[in-house]
Specification:
By secondary structure, the protein is mainly α. It is about 90% helix and about 0% strand.
């Protein structure tokens, strides 16, 4: 029982990893919107706290500019995250488009380099050409479907979190087994 009590934080971490992993794998867009909205609410709370702190200090004749700056910045970011989480999600898609364009440019460069090396009769691996073609294809897919590409990354993160939770659970079970074996000796 003592071992179980000692591992409560680890058990909570395993449950958290598994839950977040499942949510990210199942519906990354909705889960991300919820996380962004909750983050916004937390920032709004922090902003209000610092605004109250600033106003109280000002009543006492103290000008706490840092508290006011923190209040304004956290209230602004908190409002955007809370009330425009869809726009924040849209930024993820915009970033994905940028990565897609970078992939396309890299692919074109790889193909150009491959053909220049071939023309100059330098030894060059066909993998360079394949890498260039794959980069271009992947870039086109990411540019054409930026939201799906961004959320695919979140789904991959969900899978990784689920795997981590399973590994942590197996480790914990093994630890309990080792602890039991040690107590029997």
């Amino acid at each position: 029982m003592k071992s179980l009590k000692m591992n409560i934080p680890m058990i909570l971490l395993i449950l958290f990893e598994a839950a977040v992993g499942i949510f990210l794998l199942r519906d990354p867009e909705t889960f991300t919107k919820v996380v962004v909205t909750l983050f916004g609410i937390i920032l709004l709370t922090i902003g209000v706290t610092y605004l109250i702190r600033y106003l109280r200090a000002r009543k006492e004749g103290i000008n706490d500019a840092l508290a006011m700056l923190i209040a304004v910045v956290t209230l602004a970011i908190g409002a955007v995250c809370t009330f425009a989480s869809g726009a924040v999600i849209g930024l993820l898609a915009a970033v994905a488009v940028i990565y897609g364009v970078v992939l396309i440019i890299c692919g074109i460069y790889k193909l150009q380099n491959y053909f220049l090396m071939k023309k100059a009769e330098f030894p060059v691996s066909a993998l360079s050409m394949i890498s260039g073609v794959l980069a271009i294809l992947l870039g086109v897919v990411v540019v054409a479907y930026p939201k799906d590409a961004a959320f695919s990354v979140w789904q991959l993160a969900g899978i990784v979190l689920i795997v981590e939770a399973v590994m942590d659970l197996v480790s914990l079970i093994r630890t309990f087994g080792l602890h039991k074996d040690t107590n029997e000796l």
